[in-house]
Each structure stands twice: as structure tokens, then as C-alpha cells.
Amino acid sequence: MEVHNLSAFQNAFRCNTTRLGAYEVFGLHVAGMVGESHLAVVSPDIGRAKRAEFFRQRLEDILDRPVSKGLADKQRSTGQIPGDLFSGDVSGCTAIILDDLISSGTTMARVAQQCRERGAKRVIVAATHGVGGITALPNLTQPSIDAVLLANTISQTAEFVSALSGRLTVLDISQIFAQALKVEMPDKRFP
């Protein structure tokens, strides 16, 4: 589910594999929570731009209306981060920052702040894997972040869920796995 490095994944196995993504589940949930507000999908870095674009297109299909896009990136040089790049118009939008995982939450907090500084009315951060758990809380509880969406690929502690009360939604992606099994192994019977 939502592998971090697709090339490495494809080269790691000598058997059939299926790439799974949570775009549909995230898209349907976002569509239900944003109403008619103008949306922008923001990639937190250049390496994730294609993933964000796929999600943006899927969201447009679900909503049957245009969805803007944005791109953030940071320059790393000799262990320092001297500047930030942001491209796109999020003014007046609900900005959805999409990534495959949240570890420390630093990137999400930085990009959420950039979106706010550029006029975003609301900021939602979404990631398939909540890897960081409680170590990400200082960043995910920043006032620039209104909502956090995670898939249920990694169980979260009660402390994490409680600290993000009112902001956190964990989405069930089990149907994606079930559908993949059904397509890949249609003649197999499961109890």
C-alpha cells in the first residue's frame, strides 16, 4: 500500500506484485468534508509531485469540478535549509497536503504554514502511513493544521489519537486490499 519508492519496490520481488494506493478513499472522504469550498492539492516536495497530481485528478473526477494545485520544496545545502520554494495559488482554498507517510511531521507543519501565509483558509494534511506516532505530535498540533487524515495501515496509540482529538480521522482502507485480492485471485475461496 502506497510504497515510498516505487522503483525499489518493483525491483525487490521476483513475483507478481500489485501497487495499491488510497486515492479513492481519501478523495471520497475529502469530498464529504469540504462542501463547495475551492480546493488545492499541495505536494510537500518535488519528489511527491506526481503522487499529488494523481490525487488531484482523482479528486476532480469525484467532485466534478476543478481542483487547483501547489508544490512546496525546500533547498538543502550543507545540512542547512536556507530557503523554501512554493508554487501555486492556494489563496482562499482548502489546501490538502498529500504525502505517502508522516514521520516527524516537520514537512507537513512547514508546508501547512506556507499555505496559511499564502492565504489558505483551511489546511488538511493527509498521508497513508502515520509512521511517527507521538513523535509527530508537536508538528501535527500546530495551529496552521486544521485536520489530519491517515489510513489505518499503522495502528496509532491512544495518546496520539487523544492529542489530535477533533483533528484526526483514520480512514479504513481494507476494501482496497480486498478488491486487489479479488482481482488477482478470482478463483480462490477465502473463509
TrEMBL record:
Database matches in Gene3D superfamilies: 3.40.50.2020
GO biological processes: 5-phosphoribose 1-diphosphate biosynthetic process; purine nucleotide biosynthetic process
Keywords tagged on the record: ATP-binding, Kinase, Nucleotide-binding, Transferase
GO CC terms: cytoplasm; ribose phosphate diphosphokinase complex
Origin: domain of life: Bacteria
Keyword Nucleotidyltransferase: no
EC number, as in UniProt: 2.7.6.1
A single MF term (Gene Ontology): kinase activity
Annotated protein name in UniProt: ribose-phosphate diphosphokinase
Class of this enzyme: transferase
Catalytic reactions on record: D-ribose 5-phosphate + ATP = 5-phospho-alpha-D-ribose 1-diphosphate + AMP + H(+)
PANTHER family, A to Z: RIBOSE-PHOSPHATE DIPHOSPHOKINASE FAMILY MEMBER, RIBOSE-PHOSPHATE PYROPHOSPHOKINASE 2
